[in-house]
């Protein structure tokens, strides 16, 4: 089931972040392949991006915080919630500084308050 | 003559005496009725003020088996008792526990119903709202007959109908920093079933200073979240969200909508967590968050951070006392109101750029050439709209501003006069934003309708649907 989502998302954003990747790749270590991760959006983050999830290529040694910066360039309105979210990496709490690995799943969880 | 006068006079007097006696009787009746009402109110108040000592009053003189349960309890809760992991001990723990449910709405409905049916010894319900017809699609505890009545009365009546053997306490008031310590102190466990951000911070902080476990659920749109806070060394709400999101980021069901069953699902899971904490069985969601995605039928459970040592409320060096709790301004901190009714009224543009809905009706009657742009989202426009209005959602106004010009020209051409531009939205905030934008982008004479469609329905057309 998870695979399907990832494939679908990959189609959704073909090469969306290739420019970003190449830019950083030139400055960084060209030999290392970029890291491909899956980002899950919940609640307000989903409303802002209009997507439940997205596949994202990030430069090697990127942190969760770096990933958020990349997302902010693509979805500037995420700015309004970026100080009030919980990051979960592979379904576990993660600080901004955690380094992302190939195949990681990063969830962006803003609080909801309705009832 | 004299005699006759006296005779007539005494008849009048007798009549007057009879009348006064009747009046007296009626007054005395009214006095005793009022006295009885006062006594009843005092009893309710006293009950609300008492610590919720549940177990003894449940037993209430009934014969108790050696295991601590009455024959009635054994029969009623037999399916619980048959669970090897729950059993007699679990049931007695429920009977001995007291739970405060804050909010008798979409989340609170299933929470309260399940807690009442499962035999929690004492349930307190806090809410100051009244039941409205547009609550009933999700707030399943309330029947139509209670529309217009207090939610706590309705909820308590439903619980009594299910289980007359438990104690129910009605707190027909809003939970606020000023009264929360007093109310929360009477209960063992707190369930947050509220619908707004300031209440969530306030309830979490209150549970920290009173050292109570908090079962916190939330639902909006097609998503839900559920966590147990401040339980067995776990984090509190502030550990996770030290900074409140800006107002716009945390919306309400009355703005964003909610699929009725979504808070129902989360509320049921809240009841389950409350029962686990009360009975002491299993592993709770402390330190974990359950995220429910109704659209894709996915439930994820995310491991949360531990308690934050730097937390403002529960951190190692936190200086957060009961006193500082009571004086903390939660609405200011979150920049949003606790009550749905106290909506902030935007005042962005000058009065000269605004007209009332009645004034707009007058200009329709005068057949003044104009266009009315409705800046609500397209799915709102489909619900209801003023005839002849044109839908250009606020978010699309910048891109579609040329449309405004072409519509104006069309009307001007047909009427032979220049056409004026009016803007409307649901309540009169977005229409101001639109007029502000339009006036800076080539339409200096644009005006909005004060109070939006709500005022149109209230002041001009009572048959216009409100939502």
UniProtKB/TrEMBL annotation, chain A:
Gene3D superfamilies: 3.10.20.30. Keywords: Cytoplasm, Molybdenum cofactor biosynthesis, Nucleotide-binding, Phosphoprotein. Pathway: Cofactor biosynthesis; molybdopterin biosynthesis. Pfam families: ThiS. The modification 1-thioglycine is found at residue 115. GO terms for molecular function: molybdopterin synthase activity; nucleotide binding. GO terms for biological process: Mo-molybdopterin cofactor biosynthetic process. Heterotetramer; composed of 2 small (MOCS2A) and 2 large (MOCS2B) subunits. This is Molybdopterin synthase sulfur carrier subunit. It comes from Dendrobium nobile.
From TrEMBL, chain B:
ATP binds at residues 106, 127, 134-138, 151, 195-196. Keywords: ATP-binding, Coiled coil, Cytoplasm, Metal-binding, Molybdenum cofactor biosynthesis, Multifunctional enzyme, Nucleotide-binding, Transferase, tRNA processing, Zinc. It catalyses: [molybdopterin-synthase sulfur-carrier protein]-C-terminal Gly-Gly-AMP + S-sulfanyl-L-cysteinyl-[cysteine desulfurase] + AH2 = [molybdopterin-synthase sulfur-carrier protein]-C-terminal-Gly-aminoethanethioate + L-cysteinyl-[cysteine desulfurase] + A + AMP + 2 H(+); [molybdopterin-synthase sulfur-carrier protein]-C-terminal Gly-Gly + ATP + H(+) = [molybdopterin-synthase sulfur-carrier protein]-C-terminal Gly-Gly-AMP + diphosphate. Pathway: Cofactor biosynthesis; molybdopterin biosynthesis; tRNA modification; 5-methoxycarbonylmethyl-2-thiouridine-tRNA biosynthesis. Its EC number is 2.7.7.80, 2.8.1.11. The keyword Metal-binding applies. Residues 10-44 form a coiled coil. It comes from the Eukaryota. Gene3D superfamilies: NAD(P)-binding Rossmann-like Domain, Rhodanese-like domain. Its cofactor is Zn(2+). Binds 1 zinc ion per subunit. Zn(2+) binds at residues 236, 239, 311, 314. GO terms for molecular function: ATP binding; metal ion binding; molybdopterin-synthase adenylyltransferase activity; molybdopterin-synthase sulfurtransferase activity; thiosulfate-cyanide sulfurtransferase activity; URM1 activating enzyme activity. It is an enzyme of class 2 (transferase). The keyword Lipid biosynthesis does not apply. GO terms for biological process: Mo-molybdopterin cofactor biosynthetic process; tRNA wobble position uridine thiolation. The active site is at 253 (glycyl thioester intermediate), 425 (cysteine persulfide intermediate). GO terms for cellular component: cytosol. It is found in: Cytoplasm, Cytosol. Residues 366-465 form the Rhodanese domain. CDD domains: ThiF_MoeB_HesA_family (cd00757). In the N-terminal section; belongs to the HesA/MoeB/ThiF family. UBA4 subfamily. Plays a central role in 2-thiolation of mcm(5)S(2)U at tRNA wobble positions of cytosolic tRNA(Lys), tRNA(Glu) and tRNA(Gln). Also essential during biosynthesis of the molybdenum cofactor. Acts by mediating the C-terminal thiocarboxylation of sulfur carriers URM1 and MOCS2A. Its N-terminus first activates URM1 and MOCS2A as acyl-adenylates (-COAMP), then the persulfide sulfur on the catalytic cysteine is transferred to URM1 and MOCS2A to form thiocarboxylation (-COSH) of their C-terminus. This is Adenylyltransferase and sulfurtransferase MOCS3. It comes from Dendrobium nobile (Orchid). The lineage of its organism: Eukaryota, Viridiplantae, Streptophyta, Embryophyta, Tracheophyta.
